[in-house]
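Reading a protein record of the kind used here takes little practice once its layout is understood. The reader may check this reading against the record printed directly beneath this paragraph.
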Amino acid sequence: MSPYLAARTSDDPYAWLWVLGAIGLYALISYGLTYRARVRRGSAHPAQDALHDLKDREDPQPPESRFTSRMIMLGGGGLTGLVAFLTSGVVRALAVGLTALVAVTVWAYYDHRTAGRASAQR
């Protein structure tokens, strides 16, 4: 890696906070979707059951679902990076935040929907 590339990998020293925020947002949205599904099914303890559902995700996704999930994740990350590149100032923070929120929501919703289908087929 050239010194120029190493020095220019990120202009934002807190870029790792954006990554942690996206992962936390994914977990929060996944929990919310699972909680909503448990409430709709009439669970006596939807909050606890939803948490257990998230902890017990040991079954891997089918290969085509995993590929699609990763493409949604990479596409959302790429789009968020493009928005950050094309904007500046306060507009950048708002646009990047909104783009990341939409991308992570789509990703979590896709994973939630395919997890439900995979468990129903078993």
In short: The chain is about 80% helix and 0% strand. The mean pLDDT is 79. The two ends are 47 Å apart (CA to CA). Helices lie at 3-7, 15-40, 46-55, 63-86, 89-121.
